[in-house]
Specification:
Blueprint: E1 4-7, H1 15-26, E2 31-34, E3 39-44, H2 48-58, E4 67-69, H3 73-79, H4 85-94, E5 99-104, H5 111-114, E6 119-123, H6 128-137, E7 141-143, H7 157-164, E8 170-173, E9 184-187, E10 194-197, H8 203-210, H9 218-221, E11 245-249, H10 257-272, E12 277-281, E13 293-296, H11 303-319, E14 324-328, H12 336-346, E15 351-353
Helix pairs in contact: 1-6, 11-12
Bound molecules: adenosine monophosphate and magnesium ion.
Length: about 350
């Protein structure tokens, strides 16, 4: 299939170009588009055959549901049975933005979209290109991340091209996404609400908006898997490079010596075995590693920057001539919870605690 790459201004999207992309969505095509979190692979939610093509292009298991992206609240009303009061609170505070909520689905939402579930995941993205594309398509857009299933999510068009060129109709090139990790997902239908996936909107903020505690299960930290449908995607391998990745964690990130010493020791052991090692460190620690290939995810003082660099660095592991990678852990506060969730999963639970 021929894939068109269309360059669009991320802040002031050219309407003519986006109009063309919307036409492709309306006629049952697939368009990869930027959101503020990662690039999505979109189809009109009401066109079942188009939605099926998403699963095929990504090689995504059919029971892993998609998130439906909307540009106004009328669309939300048409997709769900009810809008609980708590959901409305979060919507008022956080939409458009990187927050996905789980609702009881209406009959017009196909089970193909929801992976067979009675619930549907919905969010209103805060990226001008995404919002305008949905508006011009005149249809909510079902979209998972625009990567081959299991690979790190795409945070720029180059990643989408690597994974999906030749398999979809259009790749919009609007540069880097803003946050670099996928949306926070909350199941609001339960009492108390449950965090299904940490993301850029921190749990601390959600508690503040709701004025109550929410449940953070181990799987949301990346420390366990769910086999039940509560958070279907979590049972699949995720965000993973194809080479081994070891995560070194500590319970106290105010002192980093122990962490660095452990990573350095592991590196030496691998080198003795003639293995080439990549150390993924932070700005604060990167100069401590001698005789290793080192990249930094960014400063610990700005975890948003670390999140932004995360997936491109995970892709780098496969691109570089190394046999194994060792990554430092980060504090689980704010977006740090999402960073650790992704790192634990990417490591396939290959975790060393110091
Ligand atoms: P992706 O957009 O690729 O990050 O994938 C969307 C993720 O949203 C899935 O892997 C699920 O974890 C989650 N999700 C989508 N729909 C539902 C739902 N109805 N209930 C619970 N989680 C959902
Ligand atoms: Mg995904």
């Amino acid at each position: 299939m021929e894939t068109k790459i269309i360059k669009i201004d991320p802040i002031k999207p050219e309407l003519k170009k986006l109009g063309y992309c919307a036409k492709v969505i309306k006629s049952g095509g697939l368009v990869a588009f930027p959101t503020e979190t990662v690039y999505g692979l979109g189809a009109c939610v009401y066109l079942e055959d188009a939605v099926k093509k998403i699963f095929k292009a990504k090689n995504r298991p059919l029971d892993n549901p998609l998130i439906v992206h909307i540009s106004n609240l009328e669309q939300l009303k048409s997709l769900v049975k009810e809008i609980p009061e708590k959901a409305q609170k979060l919507i008022n505070e956080a939409w458009p933005g990187p927050l996905t909520l789980i609702f009881k689905k209406n009959n017009n939402v196909s089970y193909i979209v929801t992976g067979g579930l009675e619930t549907v995941a919905i969010r209103m993205p805060a990226h001008p290109v995404a919002l305008k594309l949905i508006e011009l398509s005149n249809c909510p857009i079902a979209a998972p991340s625009a990567n081959i299933a299991g690979r790190p999510s795409p945070t720029n068009p180059k990643h989408v091209i690597e994974d999906l060129f030749g398999k979809i109709d259009i790749i919009i090139d609007a540069g880097d996404t803003f946050f670099g990790v996928e949306s926070t997902i909350i199941n609001i239908a339960t009492d108390p609400p449950v965090l299904l996936r940490p993301g850029p909107l921190p749990v601390e903020k959600i508690k503040e908006f709701l004025n109550e505690d929410i449940i953070i299960p181990d799987f949301a930290k990346g420390l366990a898997e769910t086999k039940v449908a509560m958070s279907p995607g979590t049972k699949y391998r995720h965000y993973s490079p194809s080479k081994p990745l070891i995560l070194v964690e500590t319970s106290n990130y105010s002192g980093l010596d122990k962490l660095v010493r452990k990573a350095m020791k592991l590196c030496k052991e691998f080198r003795k075995k003639k293995k080439k090692v990549l150390i993924i460190a932070s700005d604060e620690t990167k100069n401590n590693y001698m005789d290793c290939i080192v990249v930094s995810l960014g400063p610990r003082s700005n975890l948003y920057e670390v999140a932004k660099n995360l997936y491109k660095t995970l892709r780098l592991i496969d691109e570089l001539d190394v046999d194994v990678a060792i990554v430092e852990g980060f504090e689980e506060r704010g977006i740090g919870l999402a960073i650790m969730n992704r790192l634990r999963k990417a490591s396939g639970m290959n975790i060393i605690k110091v």
